[in-house]
Amino acid sequence: MPAPQDILTPPSGTPRSRRVDALFPHGRLVAIPRKEARREQLLVHLADTLFERERSYTEHEVNEALRTVHEDCSALRRYLVVAGLLVRTRDGSSYRRGR
Prior knowledge:
The protein is mainly alpha-helical. It has helices at about 5-10, 15-20, 35-50, 60-65, 75-80; strands spanning about 85-90, 95.
């Protein structure tokens, strides 16, 4: 799992990273965006930086990774699953990167 400083500082210079950087003014996510497009940018960033492809994660591991950026890990986890960025097994015992 990447270190928190790596998560919060995406490679500079890309338009998306500059937009996402604004959501982390003090190194942590201040609020989950209400606007769907803005939230989608955030979720893609979190999936790309926190979760490796081809690896399974327990719910506890997903929560711990998400807590590095925001306390409401269950809301972020739910948004990631609904967006298809994380795929959950039917019994909820493991998660994998989606799209």
